[in-house]
Amino acid sequence: MQAPDLQPVAQPVGVRALIARIRGSHGIRAGAILAVATLVLNGAGYLYNIACIRYLGSRLYGDVAAMLALFALVSLPLGSVQSLIAREVAQIPPPAVASLLRRGTRFSIALGLALVILGVALVDPLRSFLHVDSRGIVLAGISAIFFAVVAAVLYGFLQGALRFTALGVTYGVSGMARPVLVVPALLLGLGAAGALAVNTLAGFLAVAIAAYALKDLWRTKVVETAPRLDRRQMSVLLLGSLAFASLTNVDILLAKYFLPRDLAGVYAAAALLGKAVLFLPGAVVTVLLPKAASRAAAGLTARKILLASAGVTTVLTLAATGVLSVIPESLLVWAFGGDFRQSTALLGWFGLAMTAASLVNVYLSVYFAERDARFPLLVLAAAVVQIVAVSFWHPNPRSIILVTLACAGTVLLVHELFFPHSLARIWRLRRLEAAGSA
């Protein structure tokens, strides 16, 4: 019997065709651009913080970290607004997009100014509550909020209009501006206020680039009325995002209030490394939300994608926690300085707390997609309990992390017991389906 002819050239041709298809895919190119830009943005943020730690020491870095945490409480929920705007922009014609852009920008400017004015009015109470060294530090931290609000709206239009290259450039350039500008600011002796003012300059740069990338829409003649955003969905998104931002950032503010200034700086430095665990599975959540939303709109369940997302998130975060737990003290002292020697013992605990928080974020994406407010309300309750618990029990930095871990872990436990997307229930249904098909 003659052996069949094997055509060795078929595989290379197939590989070349696959590579050509990947190069020609707008979605893959866009994903790669945004992945690189997000990596640059987060990496630049770490370089910025490391520069602040090295130049300012534990006491003044505690002030910077507290103002950055306060900024995060405002800016992180804006990501939900960006996602909602992007979804609407992707579904409406350009004239309506132009009208929505004008209206959204006007609203963001008004909201940003209102938040800054409110912050200025509360400068002295904020300074007293957070034990910040000067009013100038508080003002410098607050000033970045205006550009963060406006940028979130413009980012939503870039994302919805599929202008991923422009969005990536905006992320990358504004992100790199922070470490590039903060070093001369610190060398000039501008201190914590100068370091925080750098964020305002980077925010202005982001708004300028994003606005320029949308210049054709600014010139488009408006001939249609812009659609109204779904207020109920926006409320659910903002509520859940604000609760999650509090659960993962308010601990730095509480540490600043309850702990001595040097220990607050030690806690903030440990949080800088420990909360990297939270950002690792960010791409999982980015993909999960639209996929779950599309399945919900089609009347389908998101069980399989939720199970896969939770699995990937758990593996990534636990692996990162393992790395954090074995970081030698000498390496941390070399990177941050001798003032931060005590941060080493906190890293493993931070990793566990952020592992639980990462899974909470995965669930939030599913319930956001299904417009279900029950789980966001549960996260809000946990955030309130976290603040109350730390207020009554804060003998040392580790105790604050343990409270965060307990609150996030309790959310996961309650979800497993009472919510429809319990992982145990999903796994059981999967096994039953597999047995039925067999």
Features:
single chain; 438 residues; mainly alpha; disordered N terminus
Mean pLDDT: 82
**How many beta-strand elements?**
0
> What percentage of amino acids are in beta strands?
under 5%
Shape: globular
Tally of individual helices: 19
List segments where confidence is low: pLDDT < 50 over at least 5 consecutive residues: 1-13
Distance between the termini: 38 Å
Q: What percent of the residues sit in helical stretches (DSSP H or I)?
A: over 70%
Spell the H/E element sequence: HHHHHHHHHHHHHHHHHHH
Number of domains: 2
Notes on the protein architecture:
The protein is mainly alpha-helical. The chain has two domains: 23-229, no CATH class; 230-433, no CATH class. 83% of the residues lie in helices and 0% in strands. α2 (26-75) packs antiparallel against α6 and α10 (231-258) packs across α11 (261-274). The longest helix has 50 residues, at 26-75. The model is unreliable at 1-13 (pLDDT under 50).
